[in-house]
Every structure is written in structure tokens, then in C-alpha cells.
Amino acid sequence: MPDTSDPAPDFTLPVTGGGDVTLSKLKGTPVVLFFYPRDDTPGCTKESIGFSESLRDFEAVGAKVFGISRDTMAKHDKFTAKHDLTVPLLSDEEGTVTEAYGVWVEKNMYGKKSMGIERATYLIDADGKIAQVWRKVKVPGHVEAVLEAVRAL
After folding, report:
1. Domain membership flag for residue 19
2. Where is the Thioredoxin domain (predicted)?
3. Residues catalogued as catalytic
4. Which CATH number do you get for residue 128?
5. pLDDT tens digits for the chain (153 residues)?
6. Which of 18, 26, 83, 138 falls between 20 and 30 A from 109, CA-CA?
7. How many domains, in total, are found in the chain?
8. DSSP secondary structure string, 55-73?
């Protein structure tokens, strides 16, 4: 599980709107990666809308923001259209990126154990190193905290 000051694990994933995003090609730019469990669930929807509403603020300080889940591109496209999302979403169907970032974890809900994505956010600095990590994210106030951290870079 990567932590602050570690190099961010590189990846290439498909992105909504077409094409791919390769993290290492974004060097020189701060990057926010928010990992979320599933499209169109209440917390994930609120978080994605929050990042979409603040996307211009992130762009104004030179940062790129991406949401990542294991949903398919077709699900991402429906989710984006349904909620008018502007934040780009990346599809990690194979799970290699969620595992590399340590967010694919065992969850326990009502006594039933299963594997899933732990809501987490990584702030990667312009040099490609992890500047800050938020684990077990609670959605209210999170986007604002991340934007504040980006501004402090």
C-alpha cells in the first residue's frame, strides 16, 4: 500500500469521453485520484457530484482530478450522463490499480464479508510522489479538504 512520499504507482486506464489516461504522462501536474466503490450509489454519487462541482477550482490551481472504480466504461458513461458529471472517470475493470493503491479490501457489512473498494483519495504531487492520502473517506467536506491540500502544494 503506497503512502506519503512514495512514488505513485503508474497505470494506464480508459477514461470517460474516450481514450486513455497514463499517470506518468501527467508529471508536472498535481493529480487527485478518488477511489470509490460503485457508480450510482448514494455516497459515490455525492462524492462524484462534489468533485464535478469543484472541478474548475482544481483546474484553476493546475490539478487534474479522476474518479476510479471497477465499473465498466458503459456504466461510467451512464453514471456521467445521469448526473451531468464533469469529472473524468477511469475504469479499472481488472482491478490492478485498485490493488496497487491498496484500496481493494475485505469489507464487513451486517456480518457478511466481501471484497470491495475502500473509499480513498490520493493526492499526487507534480513530481509523481504521493503528497497526501485520505483513507475511509467520509463524503461531507472531503472535496473541500482535498482542494485545500492541493492549494498547499
Report:
1. no
2. 2-153
3. 44
4. 3.40.30.10
5. 899 999 999 999 999 999 999 999 999 999 999 999 999 999 999 999 999 999 999 999 999 999 999 999 999 999 999 999 999 999 999 999 999 999 999 888 788 888 999 999 999 999 999 999 999 999 999 999 999 999 999
6. 83
7. 1
8. HHHHHHTT-EEEEEES--H
